[in-house]
Amino acid sequence: MITVDNVFKHFEQGDMKIEVLKGVNLSIKKGEFVAIMGPSGSGKSTLLQLLGGLDTPSSGHVRIQENSFSDLNEKKRTIVRRKDIGFIFQNYQLLSTLTVEENIAFPLHADGRKDKDGEEKIRSIINEVGLEGLEKKSPNLLSGGQQQRVSIARGLIHEPKILLADEPTGNLDRKRAEEILELLAKFNKERKQSIIMVTHDIFAAGYADKIILFKDGVIDKEVTREDQDYAEYLASFLA
């Protein structure tokens, strides 16, 4: 589903060149739930932007199925994002001038879809994420957990193959965080969507099939549930 091939990313700051990613190689299968962890500045959020086609590598390739973002112009990258990728943000990124229902429907309208099938999808996803009765409310009147449910519904409404989540539980208490993580795990299993989640929270990472630890712009360690040291790896964060 996703291949990252020898990716480097740097940023220019005056006369300085700041290397953020330093030769990253990564493969993510269809339906895999991946957690990316690491200290601030390690490059994990930059990688997520590259996976979503919001930026392009300085060198190397990020491929979504057969599409390499480096080989696509901005218009074609936008089409891939609209069709194949959903986004969930830590700060929700909801439009306060729109209702819950309108925020969720936004990706469909951006894609020119206003048919009855779209209306049914909106009603269905609202029920699935537990937002019944809140459709006409402003996001500003919702709790943090409810706003994140709106963000998840918006990210899923167009049935993307890939869901990218940047610290989706970062602003939530443990109870609300667990509810959100259960939702993500549910959609991952039922819809076979690949989920890539950046998180600082080892509790959140424990929902993933694979944990990738980033350090200084490279992958330092990678463990899966099949590895014997998976539980030991999780416990090492809590020691």
Kindly describe this structure:
The protein is α/β, with parallel strands linked by helices. The protein has a single domain (about 1-239), classed as P-loop containing nucleotide triphosphate hydrolases (Rossmann fold). The protein is built from 8 helices and 10 strands. The strands form 2 sheets. A 6-stranded mixed beta sheet has the order 6-7-8-3-9-10, sandwiched between helices. Strands 2-1-4-5 form a 4-stranded antiparallel beta sheet. A hairpin with a 2-residue loop joins strand 9 (about 210-215) and strand 10 (about 220-225). Helix 3 crosses helix 4 (about 115-130) and helix 3 packs parallel to helix 5 (about 145-155). The longest helix has 18 residues, at about 175-190. The chain is globular. The protein starts with a strand and ends with a helix. The model has no long low-confidence stretch (mean pLDDT about 90).
Task: Outline the low-pLDDT stretches.
Answer: none
Helix content: 25-40%
CATH architecture: 3-Layer(aba) Sandwich
Shape: globular
Q: What's the total count of β strands? A: 10
Q: Identify the CATH class.
A: Alpha Beta
Q: What name does the CATH topology carry?
A: Rossmann fold
pLDDT averaged over residues: 89
- Helix count, DSSP H or I runs of 4 or more residues: 8
Report how far the terminal alpha carbons are from each other. 35 Å
User: Largest sheet at a glance?
Assistant: 6 strands, mixed
Total individual domains? 1
SSE topology string: EEEHEEHEHHHEHEHEEH
